[in-house]
Amino acid sequence: MKSLNSTMSKFDRYLSETVFSSKNELTQKQTREILLRALKDFFEGKLALEELASIATDIYYTLNSPFRITTEWEHSLGNILENLTEVDYYKEEGRKDKYARDMHETVMKELEEYYEKNKWRIEKKE
Question: What is the SS3 assignment for 90?
């Protein structure tokens, strides 16, 4: 398992790459870009699932309002963030519980679909 400092430095990198200089509430666009950059690194093997979940949890609970995300933002973005905050639980519980295993597989499929559908948003900036 990676250290929290390692995860936070990656998170800080994503923040700086979106030209975001302070850790105040993020806009929907900034949140989407950070998530897509993290997903890119995850799918390229540069970021562990636990790190991805930690970043999503920070975005969802610390840098935004979960209520605002789920009621005012693009539904798929809010859904991905919310599911990522629980993906570690589903992964662990999936070893002994079919529902959790199915949820983990569903979340992983949703991550891939969301990334494939939206990766153009960051590819044009790289």
Answer: helix
